[in-house]
Write a structure and sequence with these properties.
heterodimer, A: Rossmann fold, 2 domains, six-stranded mixed beta sheet, 9 helices, B: 2 domains, three-stranded antiparallel beta sheet, two-stranded antiparallel sheet, elongated
């Protein structure tokens, strides 16, 4: 089995602060992976580690079975679109494409030119004058014309308006179908990912909280609603992710491979958004407790 | 990668090319005239007008010389600031390094190619300017015999190529450390001057161990007495070796010591009794010539001049040594930037 990305206890530290720690992941190839988490969760750090812009402070990471940026060939197999889609403002679109051709062994010039044509972009236009959506499309074109086996995209749609966002994601899905490429894209919005992803990694507070195929995650997580009480009588394998109480009612998000048989709970299908939010608030609650403990110890 | 390194430099390179063209045009217009004046020196003995021919060469372009030499001295620093400092800093500052370092070229090769291509072009551009300045100014430099003076040495021949390599590598290193263009530019400017000035004034005269020569004051002649606020004192000028680089120059007693006011009052008492202004080379007005000559004789008998200098014949050795030192320094700085980008910007 080939893995798009394998991380083993991966960590990255800046000074005394860990931007990412204890990250262990085995993401099989062939998926469109959503990396979701709030700002500052370590998503960019993880992606930069995966393309070799950063090197780990702890643990190890392999991408397509190799150490990131270990060789020109390895770099050529990864297409990367960085956050805010950096391009050379003073260079024209055509020059960007020439750069791609000069620096990448498998460059598909036809593909790149056709995409610029389809998008109605004038090759002589300077990249600095493009709109945000056009810039993102140029950056995506540079990444996919490399004919990569894996595409990594860091918040590619965060700064785009809804129309550009939809077009960008549509393009991305066309590429996935056409070229059988694995994709990992990050976002802080679940809605962006829900339409395109079949695999999810939730990051929060510098840790990966949960990851897996979306269908499996939805099947193994449940939303329990019942009269107000403590959570007991759950299967031994069940983990409570989040609990909230109102005056008369208790709602819980629970991870369990085994079915919840207690009839006093009404078990509901969980949405992806609820699942992600439950893990995020769990991480946030743990963070707060940690800070309270630290402050209390002083 | 070579093509792209060049392509990114295109606009700054065009500006530099424009500067080269302006310099070339100026030299093409004025140089032949300067050389034709200089050719008059070949026949001046027959006509007996050597001094006037020489003056016509020396005085023809007195205003242009400082400008040309200043431009030539500043050019390597300018390239360090505008080509070297932004080379990597601008990519780090604007975030395009994330695009550049994720293409199918390793970061090591990317840095290496940029350093070699742009650094090489810096040396080429400065070399061309230096070559033009050398050609243009050599009639005057030859007549003045001043190739070892800082204005000529630093602005022509081969040493400027070393300054170009150094200025460029310094700019790149400042850029990778700052990761921002403007502070890197300022740092480059200051550090370049902080290395070049002390090197020129303190290190260059000692690159080869200098020659020491004892000269009898009988031959020197260029000395006398001067009356200052604190009394009469002995003064002397550099010996007539203007083509060499004087490291130090002193008048020393045959048994040590120097011509102090105390020595003067002990030995030249009659000189001290006059109240008029004096000039270095002549007898103070109002002094009897015998008293003056008497004192001169005493000084000549007891003292001699010690000159430490680099002879003019060492010009090329000094140029090569200085070029080599700056090129080695540039290579070390380049290696540092290469290492820093690979190992520290992670």
């Amino acid at each position: 089995m080939t893995f798009a990305l394998q991380a083993n206890d991966l960590g990255k530290r800046y000074g005394r602060k860990w931007a990412l720690s204890g990250c262990t992941l085995d993401i099989p190839a062939g998926h469109v992976v959503g990396l979701v988490g709030p700002n500052g969760a370590g998503k960019t750090t993880l992606l930069h580690l995966a393309v070799g812009l950063l090197t780990p402070s702890a643990g190890s990471i392999k991408v397509l079975g190799e150490v990131p940026a270990s060789s020109a060939e390895q770099l050529g197999r990864i297409g990367f679109v960085a956050q805010d889609t950096p391009v050379y403002e003073n260079l024209s679109i055509a020059t960007h494409l020439s750069m791609g051709a000069a620096l990448n062994p498998n460059w598909d010039a036809q593909l790149a030119e056709r995409r610029m044509h389809d998008l109605g972009l004038d090759p002589s236009q300077r990249a600095g004058r493009l709109s945000g959506g056009q810039r993102a499309q140029l950056a995506l074109t540079l990444a996919i014309a490399k004919r990569p086996s894996l595409l990594l995209l860091d918040e590619p749609v965060a700064s785009l308006d809804p129309l550009a966002r939809r077009e960008f994601l549509a393009t991305l899905m066309e590429v996935v179908v056409e070229h059988e490429v694995s994709v990992i894209l990050s976002s802080h919005l679940v809605a962006d990912l829900e339409r395109v992803c079949d695999y999810l990694v939730v990051a929060a507070a510098a840790h990966v909280q949960v990851n897996g195929e979306i269908d499996d995650l939805l099947a193994s997580h449940h939303r329990l609603v019942g009269s107000r009480r403590d959570l007991d009588n759950l299967p031994a394998t069940a983990r409570v992710i989040e609990v909230s109480h109102t005056e008369r009612q208790t709602t819980a998000i629970v991870a369990s491979e085994d079915p919840i048989l207690d009839p006093s709970w009404s078990v509901e299908q969980i949405t992806l958004e609820d699942l992600v939010l439950a893990y995020m608030s769990q991480a946030e609650e743990q963070r707060r407790e940690l800070v309270r403990a630290k402050v209390g110890a002083r | 990668m070579t093509w792209f390194a060049w392509r990114q430099l295109r606009f700054p390179a065009l500006i530099v090319l424009g500067f080269l063209v302006v310099m070339a045009v100026f030299f093409a217009i004025t140089g032949p005239h300067l050389w034709s004046l200089y050719d008059g020196m070949k026949t001046c003995h027959a006509h007996g007008d050597c001094q006037s021919v020489k003056n016509s060469v020396l005085n023809g372009y007195t205003k242009s010389f400082p400008i040309v030499q200043t431009l030539s001295v500043a050019f390597p620093a300018i390239l360090g600031v505008f080509w070297g400092a932004p080379l990597i800093a601008h990519e780090l500052e604007t975030g395009t390094y994330r695009l550049a370092w994720t293409q199918g070229v390793t970061r090591a090769r990317w840095v290496f190619t940029k350093l070699v291509v742009v650094g090489g072009l810096s040396m080429l551009a400065v070399g061309l300017v230096s070559w033009m300045v050398t050609w243009w100014s050599s009639p005057v430099d030859t007549l003045n015999a001043t190739r070892l003076s800082t204005t000529v040495f630093d602005s022509a021949y081969i040493a400027p190529i070393g300054y170009a390599a150094f200025g460029f590598a310094l700019g790149v290193a400042a850029g990778v450390l700052w990761r921002r263009t403007v502070p890197a530019m300022a740092t480059t400017m200051v550090a370049f001057a902080a290395v070049r000035l002390p090197f020129t004034h303190f290190l260059r005269p000692r690159l080869i161990s200098p020659v020491t020569q004892n000269v009898s004051l009988k031959q020197a002649g260029n000395f006398g007495f001067e009356r200052g606020p604190s009394g009469l004192s002995f003064v002397f000028g550099d010996p007539a070796q203007s083509s060499s680089l004087i490291v130090s120059d002193s008048v020393v007693g045959n048994n040590g010591g120097s011509v102090t006011q105390r020595w003067l009052s002990d030995n030249c008492h009659s000189l001290l009794n006059v109240g008029q202004a004096t000039t270095p080379k002549g007898a103070p007005t109002g002094v009897r010539p015998t008293a003056f000559n008497d004192c001169i004789d005493k000084v000549v008998a007891s003292f001699h001049q010690v000159v430490v200098f680099q002879p003019a014949s060492r010009f090329w050795s000094l140029q090569w040594i200085e070029l080599a030192i700056y090129v080695v320094a540039a290579a070390l700085l380049g290696a540092f930037s290469y290492w820093w980008v690979r190992r520290r910007i992670t």
